[in-house]
Amino acid sequence: MSTLHQLNHPGKLNTCLPLLATGDRLLLIESAVALAASRDFLLALPEGVQLLALAQDLQARGLQQHLPTAVSSISDEQWVSLSLEVERVISW
């Protein structure tokens, strides 16, 4: 069962991280997009979890140009489509 985890604050990462499973997607939104620039965060992610970040939030924080290749930037429209593709959505 694939799950979209929507993380909006870096402080909630420790609660979310243990529940990520292979095939899940983690979408960084709002202030959590800052995690995309953290090497430690990228290394802590379980294998098989797709990492995404909301383009609008990256741009608002000036992070779009510094995005690692492991992170895919998505639009609001792609976010809506993704929400419909997965079996469940969890907001952190």
UniProtKB/TrEMBL annotation:
InterPro entries documented for this protein: DsrEFH-like, Sulphur_relay_TusB/DsrH
Species lineage: Bacteria, Pseudomonadati, Pseudomonadota, Gammaproteobacteria, Oceanospirillales
GO biological process, alphabetically ordered: tRNA wobble position uridine thiolation
Protein name: Sulfur relay protein TusB/DsrH
One matching Pfam family: DsrH
Listed GO CC annotations: sulfurtransferase complex
Entries under Gene3D superfamilies matching the protein: DsrEFH-like
Domain of life: Bacteria
PANTHER family per record: PROTEIN TUSB (PTHR37526)
